[in-house]
Write a structure and sequence with these properties.
alpha+beta; two-stranded antiparallel sheet; Aminopeptidase; 34% strand; eight-stranded mixed β-sheet
């Protein structure tokens, strides 16, 4: 009756914004011990760069789950009309590199949720390279840090194959807790 189009695993974290800086420093230290210095690190993409990449055959075929952009639980086909939907939401786009990236990420602007009057942050990281997923996730957190206040709930949507590695990378002593254990988002299709 239904066909599975895409699946993402969700790593969820929670903390006070005041603890996020220590968490980022701990992850930065861990990443610098593992990283290849020649890669240069993640880059923030302009809207034009992001749109060009997200419609490219390389990203659609190799990075997007089920050839689908997923933003804040909503699946979108990578077509020009859906780029306008994303443009209005104002996500922050990042990649591990501008040309033929192994990871592309979009982070929706934080929004308030009733749980503990928290800010919820959704980060979708498309790609299969654990090292690049960790680096781009960390870069997204660093970019958000100056604007965050109060209690935070972070949901990071990744390929199920990198979830356990990302969870291990996020183990910390900075009072950032795991919010839920492993859970998934599954995009289904049915004939109408």
């Amino acid at each position: 009756m239904y066909r599975v189009i895409a699946k993402e695993a969700i790593l969820s974290l929670c903390c006070e914004a005041a603890h996020l800086g220590l968490f980022i420093a701990e992850l930065r230290s861990r990443l610098s011990r593992q990283a290849d210095a020649s890669t240069g690190g993640p880059v923030v993409l302009t809207q034009q760069q992001a749109e060009t990449l997200i419609l490219s055959d390389h990203v659609v075929s190799n990075l997007l789950p089920g050839k689908t952009i997923i933003d804040d639980w909503e699946p979108l086909r990578p077509v020009e009309a859906n780029l306008e939907v994303l443009r209005r939401r104002g996500p922050m786009w990042m990649a591990d590199r501008v040309l033929e990236p192994t990871v592309v990420s979009l982070c929706s602007p934080p929004y308030a949720v009733p749980y503990r009057h928290a800010l919820r942050i959704n980060v979708n990281v498309f790609g299969h390279s654990l090292a690049s997923v960790c680096a781009v996730f960390l870069a997204q957190l660093e970019a958000l840090l100056p604007s965050l206040r109060g209690y935070l709930v972070l949901c990071v949507f990744v390929d199920p194959a990198v979830w356990s590695g990302l969870r291990q990378f996020c183990q910390n002593k900075a009072n950032v807790s795991f919010f839920r254990d492993y859970w998934e988002e599954i995009v289904l299709e049915t004939d109408v």
